[in-house]
Amino acid sequence: MLRLLPLLALALCVGMGQAAAKYRFAPFKDELFKYPKVLSSGYDGAFTLVEFVQSRDLDGRDEVPEKKAKAKYVSLDVDQKQKDQELDEGKLKVPFVEVGDINKPVKAVFIFVHGDKGNRFQGVDDWTFGGNFNRLKNLMVRNQGLYLSPGVIDDKETGKSQVRLLANEVIKNSPKALIFVGCASSGGQICWSLFNDPAIRPHLGGMLLLGATTGYSFVSTSPSPNDPHPIPIYIGHGNQDKIISWKIHDRLFKTIEALRPGYPIRFVVFDGGKHGTPMRMTDWRLVLNWMLEVDGV
After folding, report:
1. CATH of domain 25-295
2. What CA–CA distance (Å, rounded) separates 257 from 222?
3. 87: which strand partners?
C-alpha cells in the first residue's frame, strides 16, 4: 500500500538523500596504502610528518625493489580501459595514456605530469612505486572518473601548452568535471602554470605537488585573500630528497599559512623519504576526498 509520509519524515529522507549524493572516492585497498605511522602533526592538521622506513615501505612492499610491487598491491582489471592516445592542435601534439575515455563525460579527472627524464608511461606503470599508480588508476575508473598521463617535451612553454591542450579537451567533453593535476619533480612548473591559468583554474579540483618544484617565488604563489575559488593544494615531499629540497615547500607552506590562515593546503613530509617517495607513499584517496570536501561537491 502506498502511504504519504509526514512532511517532517519526508524532509528528513530528502536531506539524507542529499547527503548520500556527495561525490567521494570509495575505498580501494585502503589498509595497504594508508600512512604507516604519523610521527607528528601541526597547523590544525595541515602539516603531517609521516614515517618512511625503506625495509617496510619499499623492500617490504616490492617483490623486486623499485621495479615490481607484490601482487596484493595491484589490480590489473583497470588496464582493460587503458589506451595510448595522441591529441593534436596544429603543430602542437601531446601523446598521452588514458585510463577511461576522454571523449565521454566523467565526474572527475586526474592528470599526472611526469618530471625530467620521465615519460607518459611512468604514471600508468602498475608495478613501480609500490603499486601506488595502479591504485590511483583504479580509484579514478571505479568512481566514474578518468585518468590521464601525458608525455611532455619539457617543463617550459611547450610542455605547459601540451598539458593545457589536454585539459581543454577534458573541459570540452566533461565541463562539470573537477580536474585534479598532480606533478612530479620539475613537472611542478606545469602544475603552477595551470594553477594560474584563468581559463583552467575554475575547473581545478586540486593540485598535488609530488617532490616537485615550485616554479615561482613563494610570495607570488601565495593565494590572494580575495580569491573566490581557492584551489586545494597538497604537497608531498621526502626530507631526504637530494634533488629538490623539501625546504622550498616548507617555506611556501609557512608563507601561505602566514598570509592566509586556513587556506586549504596540506603538507606531508615523509621522514626518511627520498625524491620518488611521495609517488609511492601518498594516500590518493585521503587527499582527493579532502579536496572534494573543500570543493563542496
Report:
1. 3.40.50.1820
2. 9
3. 94
pLDDT at 225: 64
Beta bridge mates, 179: 109, 204
Q: 250-287, pLDDT tens digit by residue?
A: 999 998 898 888 999 999 999 999 999 999 999 999 99
pTM: 0.91
pLDDT of 220 over the 70 cut: no
Percent of the chain with pLDDT over 90: 83
Predicted local confidence at residue 174, as pLDDT: 97
Domain ranges of the chain: 25-295
Q: Any idea which residue has 601548452 for its cell?
A: 161
Separation CA 125–CA 67 (nearest Å): 10
